[in-house]
Design brief:
Membrane topology: Single-pass membrane protein
GO cellular component, one term: plasma membrane
Keywords: ATP-binding, Cell membrane, Disulfide bond, Membrane, Nucleotide-binding, Signal, Transmembrane, Transmembrane helix
Distance between the termini: 36 Å
Strand content: 15-25%
Number of helices: 24
Strand order of the largest sheet: 9-13-14-12-11-10
Pfam families: LysM1_NFP_LYK, LysM2_CERK1_LYK3_4_5, LysM3_LYK4_5, PK_Tyr_Ser-Thr
Subcellular location: Cell membrane
Largest sheet: 6 strands, mixed
Bound molecules: 2-acetamido-2-deoxy-beta-D-glucopyranose
């Protein structure tokens, strides 16, 4: 995978902090949940530390249809079209080839005390997320964190036609830069194959001045992040080039090859076991996949590198790559569970066991669980059930030993109906956040990344404080970012399976997003995923979906709210959660939000719900407030 990272050989010599002016963001811009409460963060914009509080400056934007003419680019960036044409030495009617670097003159200023920005407005032509606006449309010239900050809409409330305020990354030179002859700091979005030395050579400046302008602490430059190039005068149109948009090809493209082999294997499995429709769909998708190989590689990389730069919360959780899991002797398991005595049975083939002083849960499995064991050993997150150990006995049974979850499954908890427990909305929001955080971790921060494939309220377990953890990884599958793979065996839980999976066996992280949408509805309504209405079975998601599609949805939704929640003034909260759920349940997987989008929306909702004062809540918020 190294070939996708752009080497930066002279990096570590020259990052002299004394003169370093702006921090390079690295891949922190991929994480849309970063906060900057303890000072400016490069995951937002450049810090307002120049001599001037405003300046005129320049950005580089790569022409990409529909933004490939003077008018469309000036419209997108709110740049003066005449100046734009002049500085690029072209006429007003030029159509730029795709990938051509276009110099964009903008006004940069400190709007808040923390950050520089160049303002523009963007009207949403299609449904997008803040991340795709920042990364795909603006090519990294803006960031999802700053978009979230400057717009009143939640991450999931974006609709076609909405006008968004887009702050573009820019900066004005500092005193010392001006003294050493710098007039402008050009904002340059890094592309495949760029290195500090190649950029310095192209823009005719020294590598050391580039390194001084950007504190680079990552071992590589990442595409769709920005660097500042200090220039002694206006940028020269003769230095701009046309990019091929391809990752460098000087070393063998290992991840795509591996991936296509895997896809081929899967394909042949599909050929062997099913015919007709499924095969056709898979073949079509497979060809689409081949055409999109390049972006596949991007995603693989994104998945991998995101792990190194993540929000603090998650960074805290990633303790070790492979945590310790004990291999138990069968005698120990038998003793702990009192020979699987029925009084220790928790449910199904799960038993409570006393191991020394610790109560743990033992799950007996008749199938080969080595895949699950190997996977769980590598996973270490507060919101994913922890495998403490395992055992394989002579008869070929596997016994997995997990942390014990006092409150059982979320399904049981919702049915228990203990008023005190159920009263508070923030407990439910916390559970939703716990699940979302666990899924976000599985989708983005593990190596390899995983799709759980069987998210439902029985596979979410609650500990004594009702904090949720994801369990049962029997069906989990490796995933490579948002790529779709095909499977011929459609297995899962009724009521939770995404349409593309049910109908065509397509597997991607978005199927977990769909199932999460159903779990959210259960949290709001207390009902199960398939309910009986007028003698027929209907999907809870269909019922709430039609409620939400009507005018007056908020009022109508109130009759579906879990009765044990009514009275705690949670109608607005239920409505906000239901909106997230509706977005998760969108039919087309690509239009569903990512778990990161969902986490940021839930955090927003959580902030607006004042915690109820009850003894259990108090202890909970103390534990969480670190
Ligand atoms: C760069 O990052 C460091 C460490 O996070 C921080 O102390 C410093 O203020 C940042 N500098 C700028 C210009 O943002
Ligand atoms: C950009 O184009 C859109 C749609 O064509 C238009 O509504 C908007 O006013 C234009 N913005 C500017 C700044 O010209
Ligand atoms: C602008 O382009 C013309 C031809 O297209 C060329 O002759 C001229 O030298 C260019 N000027 C600059 C400043 O690059
Ligand atoms: C963006 O829109 C707002 C409100 O419609 C307007 O006040 C502002 O001038 C616009 N900004 C730019 C750069 O066009
Ligand atoms: C960012 O945008 C580029 C260009 O559209 C795309 O190729 C890339 O996959 C995007 N990155 C992520 C992480 O989605």
């Amino acid at each position: 995978m190294k070939q996708f990272l752009i080497p930066l050989f002279i990096l570590y010599f020259a990052s002299s902090n004394a003169r370093a002016e702006q921090n390079y963001s690295g891949n922190s811009v991929l994480d849309c949940t970063i906060n900057d409460q303890n000072g400016p963060s490069s995951a937002f914009l450049y810090t307002c530390n120049g001599l001037g509080k405003s300046c005129s400056t320049f950005l580089i934007f790569q022409s990409q249809p529909p933004y490939n003419t003077i008018t469309s680019i000036s419209n997108l960036t709110s740049s003066d079209p005449e100046k734009l044409a002049t500085v690029n030495n072209v006429s007003m009617f030029t159509v730029f080839p795709t990938g051509k670097e276009v110099i964009v003159p903008v006004n940069c200023y400190c709007k808040t005390k923390d950050y520089y920005q160049a303002d523009t407005n963007y009207t949403l032509p299609t449904i997008q997320t803040y991340f795709t606006i920042a990364n795909n449309t603006f090519e990294g010239l803006s960031t999802c964190n700053s978009l979230l900050r400057f717009n009143p809409y939640g991450a999931l409330d974006l609709l076609v036609g909405m006008q968004l305020h887009v702050p573009l990354r820019c900066a004005c030179p500092t005193q010392s830069q001006i003294e050493s002859g710098t007039k402008y700091l050009l904002t340059y979005p890094v592309d495949w194959g760029d290195s500090v030395s190649s950029l310095a050579a192209r823009f005719k400046v020294s590598s050391s001045s580039v390194l001084e302008a950007n504190v680079i602490t990552t071992p590589a430059l990442y595409p769709f992040t920005t660097l500042l190039i200090p220039l002694p005068g206006e940028p020269d149109s003769s230095t701009t080039i046309v990019h091929s948009g391809q990752p460098p090809t000087f070393s063998p493209p290992v991840p795509p090859t591996k991936k296509s082999k895997k896809a081929k294997t899967k394909l042949s499995v599909a050929v062997g076991t099913t015919g007709g429709f499924l095969l056709v769909v898979c073949v079509i998708l497979f060809s689409v996949f081949l055409m999109r190989k390049r972006s596949a590689a991007t995603f693989v990389e994104a998945c991998k590198v995101r792990k190194t730069k993540s929000s603090e919360d998650i960074r805290d959780e990633i303790a070790g790559i492979e945590h310790f899991s004990k291999e138990y002797r069968f005698e120990e398991i038998k003793e702990a569970t009192e020979n699987f005595s029925s009084k220790n049975r928790i449910g199904g083939s799960v038993y409570k066991g006393l191991f020394g002083k610790d109560i743990l849960a033992v799950k007996k499995m008749s199938s080969d669980a080595s895949k699950e064991v190997n996977m769980l050993k590598k996973i270490n997150h507060f919101n994913v059930i922890k495998l403490q150990g395992y055992c394989k006995n002579d008869e070929g049974f596997f016994y997995l030993v997990f942390e014990y979850m006092e409150n059982g499954s979320l399904r049981e908890w919702l049915e228990k109906n203990i008023p005190m427990e159920h009263e508070s909305w923030d407990k439910r929001i916390q559970i939703a956040l716990d699940i979302a955080n666990g899924l976000q971790y599985l989708h983005n921060f593990t190596e390899p990344c995983y799709v759980h494939k069987d998210i439902n309220t029985s596979n979410i377990l609650l500990n004594e404080d009702a904090r949720a953890k994801i369990a049962n990884f029997r069906l989990a599958e490796e995933s490579e970012g948002d790529n779709i793979t095909c499977t011929s065996q459609v297995v899962g839980t009724r009521g939770y399976m995404a349409p593309e999976y049910l109908e065509a066996g397509l597997v991607s992280p978005k199927m977990d997003v769909y199932a999460f949408g159903v779990v959210l509805l259960e949290l709001i309504t207390g009902k199960v995923s398939i309910i009986v209405q007028a003698g027929t079975e209907v999907m809870l998601s269909a019922v709430i979906g039609s409620v939400m599609a009507k005018d007056d949805a908020e009022a109508n939704l109130s009759s579906f709210i879990d009765p044990s929640l009514v009275g705690s003034s949670g109608e607005a909260c239920a409505f906000e959660l239901a909106k997230i759920s509706v977005a998760c349940l969108i039919r087309e997987p690509a239009r569903r939000p990512s778990m990161a989008d969902i986490v940021s929306s839930l955090l927003r909702i959580q902030r607006n719900v004042p915690p109820r004062i009850s003894p259990t809540m108090n202890s909970n918020s103390q534990r969480m407030g670190r």
